[in-house]
Amino acid sequence: MRTPLLLLLWLYFWCEARGTLRTTGGLRRTGWEHTGTAGDGLSLRRSKRGWMWNQFFLLEEYTGSDDQYVGKLHSDKDREDGTVRYVLTGEGAGTIFVIDENSGDLHATRRLDREEKASYTLSAKAVDKLTGRDLEGPSQFTIKIHDINDNEPKFTKDPYIASVQEMADVGTFVVQVTATDADDSTYGNSAKVVYSILQGQPYFSVEPETGIIRTALPNMNREVREHYQVVIQAKDMAGQMGGLSGTTTVNITLLDINNNPPRFPQGVYQFTVPESLEPGSTIGMLKATDADTGKNAEMEYTIMDDQDMFQISTKGITQEGVITLTKTLDYEKRKIHTLRVQVENVYLDPRFHSRESFRDTATVKVVVEDVDEPPVFKRPAYIMEVKENAEIGTIIGSVSAVDPDASRNIVKYLIDWRTDMDHVFNIHPNNGSVYISRPLDREEQAWHNISVQAESFRSKDEKDHVPVYVRVLDVNDNAPTFDNVDEAFVCENAKAGQRIQTVSASDADQPAGGHRFFFSLAPEASVNANFTVRDNKDNTASVVTVRSGYSRVQKSVYLVPVVIADGDFPVQSSTNTLTVRVCSCDRDGNMKQCNSEAFTLAAGLSTGALVAILLCVIILLMIVVLFTALRSQREKMEPLIISKEDVRDNVVSYNDEGGGEEDTQAFDIGTLRNPEVIEDTKHRRDIIPDSLYPSTRRLAATAARDNTDVQDFIAQRLQENDSDPAAPPYDSLATYAYEGSGSVAESLSSLESVSSEGLQDYNYLSEWGPRFKKLADMYGGEESEDS
């Protein structure tokens, strides 16, 4: 009984898939249309339409050679007499799907892929071929593409990167992988994916339904193995036989935890350093090992003893313990320092070990080497005092230094002369006594800062320095003097006992109790004195008149000698002269006019007068400058040619290879113009002066004066240069523009030859010798050619 039912069901679905439902029988699609409202709802009535289909089914990935048959469209009004034509419109009409317009058979022209498009919506209608009128209105239907298992699962990543802590418990989540299948998940098992592990067991496992990877082995140690590669497979059809599958790789890294303590590779370390090592210098470095990485391998070093002499710090990158010196080493006091260094992790994980198990210790021995040290002064600085009147050679104090070496070498002392450029002090090299070598003056320099050096014969290159501050004590060796006042004025109508000036004094000395000055009139001026001095007992004194009335006509200036003495020991005094000038005053005592000298000093020019004088001076200067400029301009504008006959001066020779444009004394053009005048004082710069060979030069000069003929003059000059053994072989062109009176050659200038009307005979040039041969060939040849 089961077999027939299965056959009937198969036949039904096959017919549905083939689309053979016709409009003339079988299933009919019914529709509903509105006819009006009744009460709260709609009044509906059922109507029948001519189209009784609305969807077709088509399998994807058709592999046949013919077009794939979809179904058949048929209208109730088609009497199959060939008068009805079927028209197809919509998605893929005419390209993907075609219809036989006479029979209504529908075909697909190419393979379809559900993953590209799962359904197509089209419309069909029946048209009368004769009239073109629609027999049936367009009706819409759908062609659905049935899925087949033609896509394998694909993972979203390949590879996956994951990590998990080492020593994790079994079942710890690592990562979740995901695969997708492009097939239809609503139809069959084509898209149902199941996960399995192909590589990575027994360390990891995967959940078949979710793709979650978990740890499967306890106590996985990163220090044993850090990286794992796991291959996961995803298979569709729920993992059944014949399903498609895909794979991906999962790279899993074990993350480090602090499960390993730091350890010193050795138990004892030894470093050797010189005792001269400066504080802050590095003694040595320790390196403990830790199998962990990152922050779990960070270590901290600690010195358990000798905290005041050494310290240790951790170098961040290499995690090394750097031991540095904090105090000065002394070989004579201690030769070996023994340290106990501890190392421990900074970050601890209490899940695995206690804190005590994460510590390790090592012994460090620091051996101090002896070096030749310079002497050391017993005090960091010395202060000495000496009176400024101390004699040369007086000892003002002493310094002391000792050799810290065990041999206790002899120490020698010397002054750093860069701190005592004037050599005011000196020191005994053996006992360190400092004494004076030059006189002192407190007023010139009250403090001297010098530096004393100490050295031993074993460490002469190394010296210790100590500052010595010498204070020069004051002695009363300076007399007081007037303080910025040496002149006073008195009116002619002054009364007796009137104060005309208050004077004060200054002293370069600095006594311990302060200054105390005493003022008095000099004894020699006490007789018939016109003025007297009254001490005010406050280091000042008043100069007062002795009588009434003073006449400028009789005497205009009085000199009052004042004696000033200090109160120190020994007493120092000086006599200072106060100049008192007599002035005419009004009734109120206001000065109107003093003597001629005072009036002249007081007189002055007003501001307007000074400005006027300054303007006059400026105008005069401008006139002088303008006159000088006009004169210079006039000299520049003078013509170079004085007359038309002097046109030869305008001929400039540019092939002169002699001394250049600045060689103005190579020849004297004035001599050619007037052979009678020759200056013996001028010398050529390109030859040795005449003073070296006077005989040849003077003979030639004498002949030149007597001979006014230019031709003879030139010949003599040529002979002079040819016969002169001191003349250097300079290539110099000398131009001679003066022909002299009665010259046969007349003018050689080409500027005047242009104005010549007749032809000239240049044959005489050939008679002038080989030096004029080139010129004779040039002019003589032209004449012969013209003829």
UniProtKB/TrEMBL annotation:
Residues 1-19 form the signal peptide. GO terms for cellular component: adherens junction; catenin complex. It is a single-pass type I membrane protein. CDD domains: Cadherin_repeat. The chain crosses the membrane at residues 601-630. Residues 75-155, 156-264, 265-377, 378-482, 482-599 form the Cadherin domain. It is found in: Cell membrane. Keywords: Calcium, Cell adhesion, Cell membrane, Cleavage on pair of basic residues, Glycoprotein, Membrane, Metal-binding, Repeat, Signal, Transmembrane, Transmembrane helix. It comes from the Eukaryota. Its main location: membrane. Cadherins are calcium-dependent cell adhesion proteins. They preferentially interact with themselves in a homophilic manner in connecting cells; cadherins may thus contribute to the sorting of heterogeneous cell types. This is Cadherin-10. It comes from Pygocentrus nattereri. The gene is CDH6.
